[in-house]
Amino acid sequence: MIVVMKPDHSPEQAEAVMTRLGEFGLKGQPVFGVTRTVIAGLGQVLQDHRDDISMMPGVDEVIRVSKPYKLSGREVHPNDTVIELSHGVKIGGGHPVFMAGPCAIETEEQLWASASGVRAAGAHVLRGGAFKPRSSPYSFQGLGVPGLKLLRQAGDEFGMPVITELLSVRDVDAVAQYSDILQIGARNMQNFVLLGEAGKTGKPVLLKRGMAGTIEEWLLASEYILSEGNPNVMLCERGIRTFEPATRNTLDLNAVALLRRLSHLPVIADPSHGTGKWYLVKPMSLASLAAGADGLEIEVHPNPDHALSDGAQSLTPGNFAELANECRALASALGRPFAEPPVAVPVGS
Ligand code: PEP
Ligand code: MN
User: Fold this and answer.
1) 165-221 pLDDT, tens per residue?
2) Structural class in CATH, domain 83-333
3) Model pTM?
4) Where along the chain do the CATH 3.20.20.70 domains lie?
5) Within 10 A of 52 (CB to CB), how many other CB atoms are there?
6) Residue of 273, 296, 308, 310 to mutate, ligand 1, most atoms within 8 A of C-beta
7) Is residue 260 in contact with ligand 1, taking CB distance under 6 Å?
């Protein structure tokens, strides 16, 4: 249920609602980003609970949330969530962003070449994996903490917030220390313990869709983060596994358009993993924007032929610059122009 407080309610009245929810065995969760004070009552809600709360002083109305996902849906939060990052970067709210960089951080030289290329082309967020979820245990697993440190350094040097995958609860502190956004990968979409721990850090979280995750399962997964009191969640469509082997995955653009309707959370598309082929990344980036995506996450490598992971789907910096120009032109034509590039802030300020 959603408890909407009267405009002139007192803090004690809101506190009393939280206490009563607790007595009913429900979790009281203030809802962020709305103009009125709104408290979600999460758990097994009975009609008696709603009746009781609706009579409490300071309560304006109690709304039954019909969808199973309570905090991510537009029922509770009609306006788009906007996530604020360093360097003035904002995600959500009608101005798409680019998140770009290598699949995996390999060397300082490789990361710097990627970062300088994507920054020059107008990227807003630098991506790079330090803990890689590889299908084979014999493949490159990422540089670990030294990779995180390089990513942080590159982000500071080139003036971009950074995103990297949080693969395991083991790494929560390190990833939260060095990264601006925690990425939960497809393979962990339903790792509920990890989602809860990511939520508790308070850092923005990008939740990728599991390769066989339904839209409802995905939104319910996002609730594990949101219900920790962390409102800064974005959803990333990265392709689902279908019967079609001609591409690595099938980028589900239905999901992008549908989520924009169902949820207030920013929706990012990842045409790199969604297609697995570098030459399909530009057309599917354009299609993602047309479907309403709030951003694109794209793999860029200075030398894709020699990449230690996902070379076949990685763009060169030059190809990324071309993609960025076409995406900007399309987004402007659609009336949702890209966000301004990050503001250069001197390191240490
Ligand atoms: C990645 O972004 O490099 C990655 C491993 O993505 P996914 O979890 O979507 O496979
Ligand atoms: Mn990858």
Assistant:
1) 999 999 999 999 999 999 999 999 999 999 999 999 999 999 999 999 999 999 999
2) alpha beta
3) 0.96
4) 83-333
5) 14
6) 273
7) no
